């Protein structure tokens, strides 16, 4: 009987996942541990460290009952029957595989700590996305560092939640994937984890595989979704050159039951902590296995994403008479998608840096992202991946030319142009007549998410550029 679960890592995956387990398994004690004191105290406060619709209610319901947040990592690992590892696996920034391979430093230290403190058999669950065959490495670390009395079973149980809808995704998942060892003990461990999910997930949605299939499925899943966005974004470029309309093309494709209807929205590019990182990881694995053609195939998905961002920047600059130098440009939206405060790999970073490199003055407004976060993101010099066409912009730190506003009308006042970079619902409700009157003329709108009513904006007097839409009026200006 599983009595106690410990989740290591209190981030975007760990926090919500463990909270939903606690909610659905009242007889199990769930502890979420992290070495970061500030993060844990935020989880124990009224202002949670992440925003997710529905999360706060669950935390209020379970915290202090069967859900606890703590920095006493070792105590809770020692007591747990099952340990979920939800730590970060960023892309390596130095050494072999830099810019592509996953950095397993946090994972490795978690495994060594588990081996140090464990005195009873444990099931160790990989939740964070990891390179294929990580379970093997983790098992070696655990086995070689334990006293021989403790048995470990490693399971791969990748998380498929999306930010912004994580609670809904966790409460009603389309599938739960559990990969385990073929041995009898491996199968027993799978059944134990399956029984936990079966408290709220229908059994036919719980898929069991071997460990390697589960690990690879997660990478493949993200790679396929990202590839779909790059495919529609590549089509959007062609639409702009031919007069076709990407929304109409997407609509036609979405009615094809063989294709399905989701992930067909053209955009300024995909962002988020997973897509690029996981594809680069996949590329690295392919290269390590001598599969150069396969690696190159997946690299193109990221190349098209970079192309989409740089195409957008170019469009803004060329349409504003080939220079944005000294011009105020309002940026609406900074998070990588709506309903989240997360800015990891948000296309807004590259687009802003591209505009700053051309000496634009940016006034940024996002309903959820703090000024501190925006400044941190824009001053960071990320290592570009090997073929990045955004490399030059990514090195640019122009935070002095940046102002951050809490009011959309202040942000757009006296601006020459507006760039919509996140599809926040509230951007549809803005009084664009008022905005237009306060802007320099001609007033431009660049809709990087195709969320605005183009006809209405054009009626007001804006010059509007949308992704993958006919540019008739545009050309006549
Ligand atoms: C993704 C996967 O969906 C999820 O299964 C996995 O567990 C983690 O990675 P997430 O990063 O939260 O989830 O965001 P998602 O909703 O998939 O969007 C990723 C990016 O693609 C966002 O920047 C989004 O704006 C963009 N996107 C999405 C598009 O540009 N067009 C679309 O049609 C869909």
From TrEMBL:
Q: Which GO terms describe its molecular function?
A: NAD binding; UDP-glucose 6-dehydrogenase activity
Q: What are the EC numbers?
A: 1.1.1.22
Record has NAD as a keyword: yes
Q: Where is the UDP-glucose/GDP-mannose dehydrogenase C-terminal domain?
A: 330-454
The record's annotation in SUPFAM superfamilies points to: 6-phosphogluconate dehydrogenase C-terminal domain-like, NAD(P)-binding Rossmann-fold domains, UDP-glucose/GDP-mannose dehydrogenase C-terminal domain
Q: Which InterPro entries match?
A: 6-PGluconate_DH-like_C_sf, NAD(P)-bd_dom_sf, UDP-Glc/GDP-Man, UDP-Glc/GDP-Man_DH_C, UDP-Glc/GDP-Man_DH_C_sf, UDP-Glc/GDP-Man_DH_dimer, UDP-Glc/GDP-Man_DH_N, UDPglc_DH_euk
* Record's signal peptide: none
Q: Where is the active site?
A: 274 (nucleophile)
Pathway the protein contributes to: Nucleotide-sugar biosynthesis; UDP-alpha-D-glucuronate biosynthesis; UDP-alpha-D-glucuronate from UDP-alpha-D-glucose: step 1/1
Q: Which UniProt keywords apply?
A: NAD, Oxidoreductase
A Pfam family recorded for this sequence: UDPG_MGDP_dh_C
The chemistry this enzyme catalyses reads: UDP-alpha-D-glucose + 2 NAD(+) + H2O = UDP-alpha-D-glucuronate + 2 NADH + 3 H(+)
Coiled-coil ranges (or none): none
Q: Which residues bind NAD(+)?
A: 9-14, 34, 39, 87-91, 128-129, 163, 274-277, 344
GO annotation, biological process: glycosaminoglycan biosynthetic process; UDP-glucuronate biosynthetic process
NCBIfam families with a match to the protein in the record: NDP-sugDHase
Q: Which family does it belong to?
A: Belongs to the UDP-glucose/GDP-mannose dehydrogenase family.
Question: What is the name of this protein?
Answer: UDP-glucose 6-dehydrogenase
Tell me which species this is from.
Pisum sativum
């Amino acid at each position: 009987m599983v009595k106690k679960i410990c989740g290591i890592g209190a981030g975007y995956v760990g926090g919500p996942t463990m909270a939903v387990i606690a909610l659905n398994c009242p007889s199990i004690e769930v502890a979420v541990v992290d070495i970061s004191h500030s993060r844990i105290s935020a989880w124990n406060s009224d202002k949670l460290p992440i925003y997710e619709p529905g999360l706060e209610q669950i935390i209020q319901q379970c915290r202090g009952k069967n859900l606890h947040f703590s920095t006493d990592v070792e105590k809770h690992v020692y007591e747990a029957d099952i340990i979920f590892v939800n730590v970060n696996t960023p892309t390596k920034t130095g050494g072999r595989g830099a810019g592509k391979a996953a950095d397993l430093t946090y994972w490795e230290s978690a495994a060594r700590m588990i081996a140090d403190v464990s005195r009873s058999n444990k099931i160790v669950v990989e939740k964070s996305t990891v390179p294929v065959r990580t379970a093997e490495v983790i098992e070696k670390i655990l086995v070689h560092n334990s006293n021989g009395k403790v048995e470990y079973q490693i399971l791969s149980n990748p998380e498929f939640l999306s930010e912004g809808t994580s609670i809904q995704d966790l409460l009603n998942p389309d599938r739960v994937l559990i990969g385990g060892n073929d041995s009898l003990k491996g199968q027993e461990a799978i059944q134990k984890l399956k029984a936990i999910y079966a408290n709220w997930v229908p059994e036919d949605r719980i898929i069991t595989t071997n460990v390697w299939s589960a690990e690879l499925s997660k990478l493949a899943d993200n790679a396929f979704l990202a590839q779909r966005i790059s495919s529609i974004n590549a089509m959007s470029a062609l639409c702009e050159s031919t007069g076709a309309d990407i929304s109409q093309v997407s609509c036609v494709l979405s009615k094809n039951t063989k294709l399905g209807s989701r992930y067909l929205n053209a955009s300024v590019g995909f962002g988020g902590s997973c897509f690029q990182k996981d594809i680069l990881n996949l590329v690295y694995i392919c290269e390590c296995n001598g599969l150069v053609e396969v690696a190159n195939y997946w690299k193109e998905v990221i190349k098209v994403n970079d192309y989409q961002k740089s195409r957008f920047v170019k469009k803004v600059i060329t349409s504003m008479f080939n220079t944005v130098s000294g011009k105020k440009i309002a940026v609406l939206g900074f998070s990588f998608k709506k309903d989240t405060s997360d800015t990891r790999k948000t296309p807004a970073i590259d687009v802003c840096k591209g505009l700053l490199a051309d000496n634009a003055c940016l006034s940024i407004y996002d309903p959820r992202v703090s000024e501190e976060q925006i400044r941190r993101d824009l001053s960071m010099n990320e290592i570009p991946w090997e073929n990045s066409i955004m490399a030059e912009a990514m090195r640019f730190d122009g935070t002095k030319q940046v102002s951050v506003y809490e009011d959309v009308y202040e942000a757009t006042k006296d601006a020459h142009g507006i760039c919509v970079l996140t599809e926040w619902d509230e951007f549809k409700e803005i009084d664009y007549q008022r905005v237009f009157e306060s802007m320099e003329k001609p007033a431009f709108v660049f809709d990087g998410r195709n969320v605005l009513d183009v006809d209405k904006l054009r009626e007001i007097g804006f010059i509007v550029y949308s992704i993958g839409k006919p540019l008739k009026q545009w050309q006549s200006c």
